[in-house]
Amino acid sequence: MIKIIIKIMFIAFYCVMLVLLMLYLDYSSHNYDKKTNYFAAMNDKVAMLKSAHSPKIILIGGSNVAFGINSDLLNQAFNRPVVNLAMHAGIGLNFLFNITLEHLNPNDIVVVVPEYEHYQGDLIYGDLALLDTIYFYPAGVKYLMECRQIVATLEPNLGRAKNVREHYIKYLFGKGATAIEVSDIYHRNAFNGYGDVISHLNKAKTDFVCAGMGHVFNDSAFTAIEKFKYKVVKKGAKFILLYPCIPESRYIKIQAPLEILAQKMADHKLITKTLPFKYVFPDNYFFDTQYHLNSVGRNERTYKVIEDIQGIIY
Amino acid sequence: MPFNSLKYFLFLPVVYLLFYFVCERARWCVLLAASLLFYAALKVPYLLFVLPLVAITTYGFGIWLDHVESQKAKRTLLWSGIAANVLILIAMKYLPFLSENMKLFSALFSLDVHIQPVKAFVAIGVSYYVFQAISYLLDIYLEIEKPERHFGYFALYMAFFPKLLQGPIERVGDLMPQLKTPYEFNYDNMRFGMVLFTWGLFKKVVIADHLALLVDPIYSNVYGYKGLPLILATYYYAIQIYCDFSGYTDMALGSARIFNINLAQNFNNPYLATSIADFWRRWHISFSRWILDYIFKPLQMSWRNWRNCGTAMALVVTFLVSGIWHGASWSFIVWGLLHGIYLAFSVLYKPIQKRIYQKLGIEKSKITRFWQIIVTFNLVSFAWIFFRANNFKDALYVCNNFYYGLFDLLLDLSIKNIFSGRYNLTRSLGPIDFVLLLAVITLLLSIESKKDFISSISSKGKLGRWSVYLGLIFMIVFLGMFKGSQFIYFRF
Amino acid sequence: MELQGKLNQIFCEVFDDDDIKIAPEMTANDVDGWDSLSHVNLIVAIESKFKITFSHKELLSFKNVGGLLNSIRCKIIN
Q1: Most buried among A5, B134, B303, B326, by the most CB within 10 A?
Q2: What CATH code is assigned to A39-156+185-313?
């Protein structure tokens, strides 16, 4: 019996070494310079959050919030500082929830706008992007609080092998692969003083694909949001959950699952006054993905957000 | 939780440790609790109601069946027990299909029937344990087995987590005695189980999930393709489904083995089959034995006075049921029927075939066997079109368009052309990945065709064994497709 | 013995093989070609030769040739 325990431990050690090797190879094939990497901006956002005076507005979500809200309009409408914590769906929401709770004061307003994918699978806990974010913001480790969250965060990293293969095979065959370039949109300085992404505003629209949506939702995502809402309210702050912005052509594809989602929202008493349709916009309001709005779309969307926020404070 | 997830890699050792350290009398509790937790991890709450419902109903009927004396009462109880189980299965799996088709049916006859659209239930595992329950009742009725009185062991027999989601379907005579045998640590079983599990994981994440990248783009949009891509996607799918399903089964058997439980073998080199009948003795063996014993044989016996025709009809009906069991859609039904027709045809054709081979003197020749394997593989692959296509219309499209341009292609084929991307052979995979994949598949098929190859790995020297273990793990980590395999920026 | 002899003859006819020698412990796997088809032909031949009928339950629970023999014996006697 002892013999096999030793052998198993050796194999486990070997597996961990291989995974670490794979992570290392993946890192060395990308640009992980903290001056220019997009995820390094988490440091700036947390700094903004620390220095903002209450009562403030905090925005949480995926890149639909990063690319799709004009916080200046919010600032003018409500006369409060705005902090946009959102960056990428893959950071998950739990992480941002935990950061927010630590810096929350009475009369703050928390606006949560998940992407539809956050309600399915384990994305609410985060995936590859979260680990990258922690790499640039090591203090963020304290916000990974639950076991389940840690497992869900680490698990997708097994998928990095595909990136490694693609990169190194190209390299082996002399195609001269270089570290994946920093895009002029997805970099650390893409954000303004509120934390909104503005680097895309004067760029031309590119084609994007609208994904479908499954019918199966993860009930623990709704529970996690409910728990967060409860804690926010307990601190004397206000909470609002909204539907993300999507193009019309996607809405047509996913109407059936959205009906199921809207029903679940009503059952959990999370969103009762609006429907997903409110945040459906024409395709030409979008920039490069099914969630990123251009400058026109962004403003239109922000007006609707203002309406919804007014609904809870007045 | 799927077997190829981090959660399961943590779950299995924890369950084993608990199982090992607890006293013998409580071991079944550990396994049962673990099985329920495993099922709960699917996050579909109503399934945790369905499983106990099936278990309690079947347990009750089993004891009652044994208790009554008269044949008539036994028959009534048997059919009631089967009906109860089948009703549960229909309710979980077939209501949406039935309600959609009722609409069609009523439209055909201009009837104004209002049928509420029925939501689809998630029914993972239900088909398997319902069938297992039915086999239990039948074995009691035929007096092959006695009913299990200990409800805990019975529940474990139904819910045992390695086989819960995708089988194998276990006969009570095979599994129950093993569950009750006191556990004694067995080094060989531990090792065998872990190696088998790793092998299954390899087949699934390195081969099947890679092939999916080639198959999915084509089958999710068949109308965008004509000719060769459709053929290739179908062949790739034939290998994908084998590696996926047999990989899953290996992981199940490997998991069970570490608890000293030998689950039924489910695959035996199916693509080396020399006939469709032989194929069904090698593919999803626990399921095909089930339909053989409980549907085919009784039907065949009922119709025995119609000789070959009776048998042919029994085959068609049996495989129709098989199609329905696999899925609630017309294309699955057609898939099943196709196999039924293949078999019915071969029943009628076999005596003629035997005479032809005897006349030509090639009955036992290697070339004949080779030819039979190729023909069988192609018949099976053709049937997979219906299994994989999203719906019946798509499947028909593939059937009508796969031979497009084939003649010209055969005239034009050359290595250069294959990799030039002209024939969509390597779409979604670079040429290197494609060659690697072919190499791995060939390796796989030749390794698996050796009997007991898992044991033969263990019988090699220390260096040989460990190179295999470490090599497999290396390939799994670096060549495997895991959740999150999409490049980060795709997630935006 | 005589019963076994008659049954043996039926086996030889059905499987088209004069070298078959049945024994009570034999199961389906032992006789070359005793797959589902031949099984049926065998039963039909037995039923017609001995003028008996088997019930479903009996047919599905024969484990080996011995069981078959016993069942035939009982039916002839009755």
Answers
A1: B134
A2: 3.40.50
Cross-chain Cβ contact B298/C60 below 8 Å: yes
Distance (Å, rounded) from C-alpha A18 to C-alpha A9?
14
Q: Residues 6 or more apart from B230 whose CB is under 8 A from it?
A: B218, B222, B398, B401, B402
pTM of the model: 0.83
Q: B162-175 pLDDT, tens per residue?
A: 999 888 999 999 99
Distance CA A84, CA A111 (A): 10
Report the percent of chain A where pLDDT is more than 70: 96
> How far is it, in rounded angstroms, from Cα A232 to Cα A237?
6
Contact A250, A258 (CB under 8 A): no
> What is the CATH classification number for the domain harbouring C52?
1.10.1200.10
Question: What are B364's two structure tokens?
Answer: 């036992």
Sign of CA dihedral B218, B219, B223, B226: positive
Burial of B327 (0-12, 13-18, 19+ CB in 10 A): middle
Nearest to B384, CA basis, from B294, B288, B276, B296 = B276
Contact status of A18 with chain B (Cβ, < 8 Å): yes
C–B contact: 3+ Cβ pairs < 8 A: yes
Question: What are B100-149's pLDDT values in tens digits?
Answer: 777 777 777 666 656 555 666 777 888 899 999 999 999 999 888 899 99
Q: Which of A84-93, B198-207, B382-391, B438-447 has the lowest mean pLDDT?
A: B438-447
B483: closest chain A residue by CA: A156
Tell me how far apart the alpha carbons of residues C61 and C54 are, in angstroms, rounded to a whole number: 11
Q: What is the mean pLDDT of chain C?
A: 77
Please report the sign of the dihedral spanned by the C-alpha atoms of residue A136, residue A141, residue A143, residue A149.
positive
Residue pair B492/A289 in contact by the 8 Å Cβ criterion: yes
- Residue A84 host element (H or E): strand A82-84
Beta-strand relationship, A82-84 and A57-61: parallel
Helix locations, chain A, DSSP H: 2-28, 41-51, 63-66, 71-78, 94-102, 128-136, 147-154, 160-172, 219-234, 248-267, 295-313
Contacts of A37 in chain B (CB under 8 A): none
Q: Residue A114: its chain B contacts at CB < 8 A?
A: none
C70 lies in which domain range?
A: 2-77
- Looking at the partner chain, which of B6, B190, B430 has a beta carbon nearest the beta carbon of A151? B6
Per-domain boundaries in chain B:
6-183, 190-479
**What are the pLDDT digits (tens) for A171-182?**
766 655 455 555
Which residue among C37, C40, C61 sits closest to B144, beta carbon to beta carbon?
C61
Residue B53 has pLDDT above 80, yes or no: yes
Distance from CA of C1 to the nearest CA of B (A): 27
Least Cα distance to B473 among B205, B244, B202 occurs for B202
Q: Whole-angstrom Cα distance, residue B269 to residue B288? A: 15
Band (B251; pLDDT cuts 50, 70, 90): very high
Q: How close is the nearest chain C Cα to the Cα of B141, in Å?
A: 8
Check CB contact of A162 with chain B, cutoff 8 Å: yes
**Distance between B295 CA and the closest CA of chain C, angstroms:** 11
Contacts of B298 in chain C (CB under 8 A): 56, 60
B190 vs A contacts (CB less than 8 Å): 4
User: Nearest chain C Cα to B299, which residue?
Assistant: C56
Nearest-neighbour CA in chain B from A34: distance (Å): 17
Q: What is the DSSP letter of A289?
A: S
